[in-house]
Design a protein that fits this description.
Blueprint: H1 15-26, H2 29-42, H3 45-72, H4 79-86, H5 89-103, H6 105-122, H7 134-153, H8 157-185, H9 205-219, H10 235-264, H11 267-270, H12 276-285, H13 287-300, H14 302-321, H15 340-356, H16 359-386, H17 399-418, H18 420-446
Helix pairs in contact: 1-8, 1-10, 1-14, 2-6, 2-9, 3-9, 3-10, 3-16, 3-17, 4-5, 4-16, 5-14, 5-16, 5-18, 6-7, 6-13, 6-14, 6-15, 6-16, 7-14, 7-15, 8-10, 8-13, 8-14, 9-16, 9-17, 10-12, 12-13, 14-15, 16-17, 16-18, 17-18
Amino acid sequence: MKANSSEFLAPKLGLFSISNIVIANMIGAGIFTTSGLLMADLKSPWLMISLWVVGGAIALAGALCYGELGAAMPRVGGEYTFLSALYSPLVGFLSGWVSFVVGFSAPIAASAIGFSEYLFRAFPDAFQIDGIEVNWIKKVCSISIILVFTGIHLRGMEFGARIQNWLTMLKIVLIIAIIGFGFAFGTGSWDHFHTHVTDTPVPGWKTIGLSLMWIMFAFSGWNASVYIGSEIRDPRRNIPRSLLIGTGAVIFMYVLLNILFVYAVEPDAMAGVISIGGLAVKNLFGINYETIFSLFIAFALFSSISAFIILGPRVYYAMATDGKFFSFASKIHPRFGVPAYSIIFQAIISIVIILSGTFDQILTYMGFSLGIFPIITVFGIFKLRREKRSTIHLPGYPLSPVIFILAGIGMLLLSFLERPIESSIAILTVLLGLPAYYLFVRRKSVG
């Protein structure tokens, strides 16, 4: 696999495929794993559902801004490309650095952990091996699925996109089936909405801010198609459409799913449960259906893992071609036309994250890290318009960027106050990018 200046990522994807990538990135471990954790902290079903609606509004505001930015700069790299062009290469690099360490590798790890949790709920006896802790068996299962999909996407974008489309459609059908059959035939109770988690204090603003940040993790992916702009046909038209179609569809499904979760499970039983979808199905239809649906949800998480493996390496590729990342990341496989070494490197980082933390620690670290640069990116929409570089004007300006920026800053501040250790590690991750940037720049100038 050798790199040269003639190698590039060709436009191969249409609106259907990239909308599926947006949906697949958004519908992942977050919606199937965080609602139980949220209920444990928020105590109130109505507060939890209200925050899901607020999170959807913030994501839609961001999608409007990124759609305009993506249409103006339809290249691979996402925030790295935008921030490098709007501000400076250093700011762009730091966003790419965070994407490398956290933005894609950590969500891959979280989705893989979600897969193993649901597989365990479906087949608990299979995870019982004498002398080995269940948590380690789950970790091995999570790592194995990352390796499988890394192998799939090493075989090319078109092959990977076909797999991605099928997985995403399976996920959408599954969610619609759970919602439709759950409300029509399930054994639930609307009385659950009038009860709270017992014997616990009312949550404060810091808890609400952290909860909203976890929800925004579940919505992360609303900006997915801007990371592969060079591989999209008619990007100025299809990037904004894909973001709005994907984000709108996911908001609708997320709100209905959370209403269904509360309808199926009373708040006390819901609090702290990671595999909340499996528990909801058990209550709605019985234990036999819990096994079936837990298995389906486990496999539905495949599309999230797959989508993140597609997107992340394109950011590292863009950075490497600019001389601001490891040179191997710019190498394109001569047969399959993918940044193969970037894909492999990302898998290694994801595996390290799985081995190093608990699920809620990963969520907080991820959420804080990923909340920083989208704020700076969305602020750039003002500069884009002022300099008359925007190729399309999407509705919502200037309200959309103002809502996104203020909400993002508020979440970061409240989350830091609630979880200072994980938030400080996230800040440290960003700061470690500074010496890395100058190291790459110096190496490029010497070379």
